[in-house]
Amino acid sequence: MAQTVETIARALAARAEGDISLPIEGASEPQSAGPKQIALAMSEKYIPGLAQGKALAAILPEGTDWQGLGLKAAIFVARPRLAMAGLSKAFDPGPEIAPGIHPTAVIDPTAEIGAGAAIGPFVVIGRGVRIGEGARIAAHACISEDVKIGEQALVLQGVKIGARVVIGDRFIAQPGAVIGSDGFSFVTPEKSGVEEIRETLGQRDTIKEQSWTRIHSLGTVVIGDDVELGANVCIDRGTVRATMIGSGTKLDNLVHVGHNVQVGRDCLLCGQVGIAGSSRIGDRVVMGGQCGVNDNIFVGDDVIAGGATKIFTNAPAGRVLLGYPAVKMETHVEAWKNIRRLPRLFAQMAELRETVTNLTQKKGTE
Amino acid sequence: MAQTVETIARALAARAEGDISLPIEGASEPQSAGPKQIALAMSEKYIPGLAQGKALAAILPEGTDWQGLGLKAAIFVARPRLAMAGLSKAFDPGPEIAPGIHPTAVIDPTAEIGAGAAIGPFVVIGRGVRIGEGARIAAHACISEDVKIGEQALVLQGVKIGARVVIGDRFIAQPGAVIGSDGFSFVTPEKSGVEEIRETLGQRDTIKEQSWTRIHSLGTVVIGDDVELGANVCIDRGTVRATMIGSGTKLDNLVHVGHNVQVGRDCLLCGQVGIAGSSRIGDRVVMGGQCGVNDNIFVGDDVIAGGATKIFTNAPAGRVLLGYPAVKMETHVEAWKNIRRLPRLFAQMAELRETVTNLTQKKGTE
Amino acid sequence: MAQTVETIARALAARAEGDISLPIEGASEPQSAGPKQIALAMSEKYIPGLAQGKALAAILPEGTDWQGLGLKAAIFVARPRLAMAGLSKAFDPGPEIAPGIHPTAVIDPTAEIGAGAAIGPFVVIGRGVRIGEGARIAAHACISEDVKIGEQALVLQGVKIGARVVIGDRFIAQPGAVIGSDGFSFVTPEKSGVEEIRETLGQRDTIKEQSWTRIHSLGTVVIGDDVELGANVCIDRGTVRATMIGSGTKLDNLVHVGHNVQVGRDCLLCGQVGIAGSSRIGDRVVMGGQCGVNDNIFVGDDVIAGGATKIFTNAPAGRVLLGYPAVKMETHVEAWKNIRRLPRLFAQMAELRETVTNLTQKKGTE
């Protein structure tokens, strides 16, 4: 990880000027950068901070006069956040997991683990597990029987993967994530109150005693390539078929994915999103934090839902949603504008009724 | 677990026809079923799928012409989801936890563990713990001092049970569940801003500096029989008395139950529901995902709350709720219909005011 | 922990009367108190319960006639919840973690652990970690390389602390909390749909395929003194600078704090609150359960937000908020009053239109 301005520029596919052999040991915000750190001043507003810091090199917007800023070298980028991706990758030391298998790990002799693995203390790997090359598995992770994981996996502390789960390449799971817990699926011997109100939209004839019988989850979870799961995420296994997470999809911390759910490719589900059982989410769907999706519905490709949107019914592809219940974002904004105008409307109504009453009475007495 | 059409029909208390000795190794959706799997075609819409799969036997709605579908045997059920419960139980292999106590487990010598236990690697069981017969405790579970658990418990990976928690028979805890964490209870030396606005509904005289002193949780958690907790569920212990979860109640993933809460019998709390401290939930209450219950309130028996309903005040028994703030489901549906009609109302008001102004002016000039 | 009425009164800085040498082994609600327990009857409504219980001593509101209640001793308090803090601290046995380092713990030889530590089974402590005096670290906790923790820490079962996190004195982390998971930060090579709708408030020209490139988290998490984290809380590390949690702040179960977030001092964030990336929360902010804060916004000092408030835009200091979207609490209450009055408004409008139409027609036919 010994870097210079030149190696960083190459990693970013960006143009560098000045003393490109300058050694760089890390990245920092401009105002707190030391002389061996590259300052992140990718947009205009960060440039004044350079004067307070000690950086000799910086990442700058195209066209910046780096020499005038007293720098010895500069890298120019067009799309700052994209540059940040390359730069952060170059400098991320990653979690320290010693190469090889820690002596305390309990690994079933039938498990096959690819070359180059680093497996931490107290890891448990079950019967028939197959893990690809280059896996890094941190302390206290549990990988149950017959799980398959692709190459270059990073499974962090205390992640629990249930039996028969299948995962693609370059998988990342943050600490505490649970994949393959049993689905939340229960049935009453007779029609339940919930089934009744779904048919009647809230009317209930008589309320009966009822208790719940468990429907076991025979299915599993199938996860594509390049998927990342946040800390303490929970993904339930399917009842008969598998719960699916498409390639390229990223789940933030504390996201809940119910049984039988199908999430498409390249989706982003932000913190604390919940998807109820058997719903289907298209490709490239983005949900802000705390969104909720009802069970057994469909959310089309490219839907974007603002924070805490609660989606109760099918959403067509490309729709931008907000609110509880979810409506088009513009409809929601308009609705609350209208709600805030209500006091004036009530006043106008009162005034108008008085005027009209006067008119009518005058009429009557004419 | 060697099954035939006959043994499955018996497990479902259902009627079978045809070659009931046919061996069955698993269940599948009709279109992907192999010749040794029973096809799940319990409602009409799944029947066309049988032609694409290879199943020789199927579970069908009463009256279906199974011979005409080319099957060798059939089982007939009246309530498909109930059949699914029996069927899934018959075929669920369950998690593999080797019988006996894994040599790496750390078990206090004073703990009493019933016959037939299977205890996985790195499990920790504390002083004075008592666990009934037939317990299955998976890797990394932690059971603290003086906990009591009934018979046939299934405690999955990384579940943490705090001191003195008492749990009934047939308990199931999915991975990562935490039972008996300390309550979130803090007090300021003088009246806090929160106490003030609760009394004044939002008015604040002066804002004072304040810091928080912890109220420790001396109580515990008491859980009835046949309770199931989802992955990463959190249940706090009570302050003085116990937090209670009634028999037959099921909690989905990431549900939060605050200190002193009383949840009744046979409730379903879906994913990410949160119940704030000291509230009481009646029997047979069903809450959709992401519902929230305010602290110190009461939700009556048989209440059903739709997804993400936020319950701020007491809810009478049998009420069907929706919305933020929670109102009767029909009221909520009506409210949003009315909100969507507001643009027309504004237009009518503008038009009417103009008409009336004209009338008034005409009047004046008559 | 052998207590008497006298020692308890002293711990509460409260006045005692009667036989203050009476030994006390615990605290209880009045109706279930035994003769060696002190009854908690700090407000009038609990006093009748004393007759059902067997307590010889009670904590009472000032001025209560304790002798008339048949008690042998009494402690008088002015602010009951504050008394409860002192009392519960006096009687909390805390979790049992044996003094010293459990032989199964895996501790890097370069780690420095202060005097008086109690470290449980299967704990993992990484390279260069420094932990202050009096630490109690329960089973399965993971503390990664270069973490610093102050004095008197209580780190409970299965807590995972990522590399380079810095934590102050008297830290408490309930089971399963994750500190220092990677931030949820991704970028598309070209402008994404999310960036587009943020600029256009929902309008989208063309929808493009897009996939996500990871921005690694180089920053860490810095936590002040006297911070408590609930069970399964998740706090992400910063991208370049640190995510910060100020001294005295308490987070309840399942709270999510995104990357780069700055939370001030003495805040309370109740169960399942979520703070999206790069937002700043002032000092003494209180958020009810399930509140959400948008990314990149600012919530001022002393803001109080009711349960499930969704804060989308900057909130000025001292504001009391409620609703989705968050508005002043009084505005929200008023809004829903108005919404409930809409049916009457629609009826009035219909009636008025008819009256005016009649007036107009009469006019026309005069």
TrEMBL record, chains A, B, C:
CDD domains: LbH_LpxD. It catalyses: a UDP-3-O-[(3R)-3-hydroxyacyl]-alpha-D-glucosamine + a (3R)-hydroxyacyl-[ACP] = a UDP-2-N,3-O-bis[(3R)-3-hydroxyacyl]-alpha-D-glucosamine + holo-[ACP] + H(+). InterPro entries: GMPPB_C (IPR056729), Hexapep_transf_CS (IPR018357), LpxD (IPR007691), Trimer_LpxA-like_sf (IPR011004), UDP_GlcNAc_AcTrfase_non-rep (IPR020573). The active site is at 259 (proton acceptor). GO terms for cellular component: membrane. Its EC number is 2.3.1.191. Residues 102-182 form the Mannose-1-phosphate guanyltransferase C-terminal domain. GO terms for biological process: lipid A biosynthetic process. Keywords: Acyltransferase, Lipid A biosynthesis, Lipid biosynthesis, Lipid metabolism, Repeat, Transferase. Pfam families: GMPPB_C, LpxD. It is an enzyme of class 2 (transferase). Pathway: Bacterial outer membrane biogenesis; LPS lipid A biosynthesis. One of its GO terms (molecular function) is UDP-3-O-[(3R)-3-hydroxyacyl]-glucosamine N-acyltransferase activity. The keyword Lipid metabolism applies. Residues 22-89 form the UDP-3-O-[3-hydroxymyristoyl] glucosamine N-acyltransferase non-repeat region domain. Homotrimer. Belongs to the transferase hexapeptide repeat family. LpxD subfamily. Catalyzes the N-acylation of UDP-3-O-acylglucosamine using 3-hydroxyacyl-ACP as the acyl donor. Is involved in the biosynthesis of lipid A, a phosphorylated glycolipid that anchors the lipopolysaccharide to the outer membrane of the cell. This is UDP-3-O-acylglucosamine N-acyltransferase. It comes from Rhodobacter viridis.
